């Protein structure tokens, strides 16, 4: 039985994929939808990067949406694009958190910016 295997629920022989070939169930199932979700993930990632660079705030929502879109692209069959989208989105989210803490030169820390009249309101 080299190259063929019997499924216990089905009596028909099943061919195993050869080395270097993708199994038939892992091919691009929805080629257009998977690539649309991958591109959408990169759009959300770009928006998260722009927010991190301009306002210095850690906006988690674009990164979260980018990761969900990348995972959806991966599940629909765009394996390499989906993995790349998730990795890039995670890196941009970490960059946003680092920028919000003031560790990036030229970007003010957004979590330590207090209004000027805080001392007046507290009486100190």
Automatic annotation (TrEMBL):
<keyword id="KW-0812">Transmembrane</keyword>
<keyword id="KW-0472">Membrane</keyword>
<feature type="transmembrane region" description="Helical">
    <location>
        <begin position="59"/>
        <end position="76"/>
    </location>
</feature>
<feature type="transmembrane region" description="Helical">
    <location>
        <begin position="83"/>
        <end position="104"/>
    </location>
</feature>
<protein>
    <submittedName>
        <fullName>Uncharacterized protein</fullName>
    </submittedName>
</protein>
<feature type="compositionally biased region" description="Basic and acidic residues">
    <location>
        <begin position="9"/>
        <end position="30"/>
    </location>
</feature>
<feature type="region of interest" description="Disordered">
    <location>
        <begin position="1"/>
        <end position="30"/>
    </location>
</feature>
<feature type="transmembrane region" description="Helical">
    <location>
        <begin position="36"/>
        <end position="53"/>
    </location>
</feature>
<keyword id="KW-1133">Transmembrane helix</keyword>
């Amino acid at each position: 039985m080299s190259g063929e295997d019997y499924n216990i629920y089905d009596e028909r022989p099943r061919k195993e994929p050869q080395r270097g070939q993708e199994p038939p169930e892992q091919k691009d199932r929805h080629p257009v939808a998977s690539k649309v979700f991958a591109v959408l993930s990169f759009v959300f990632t770009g928006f998260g990067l722009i927010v991190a660079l301009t306002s210095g705030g850690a906006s988690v929502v674009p990164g979260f949406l980018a990761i969900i879109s990348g995972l959806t692209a991966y599940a629909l069959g765009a394996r390499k694009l989906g993995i790349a989208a998730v990795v890039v989105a995670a890196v941009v989210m970490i960059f946003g958190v680092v920028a919000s803490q003031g560790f990036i030169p030229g970007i003010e820390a957004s979590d330590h910016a207090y209004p000027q009249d805080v001392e007046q309101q507290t009486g100190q």
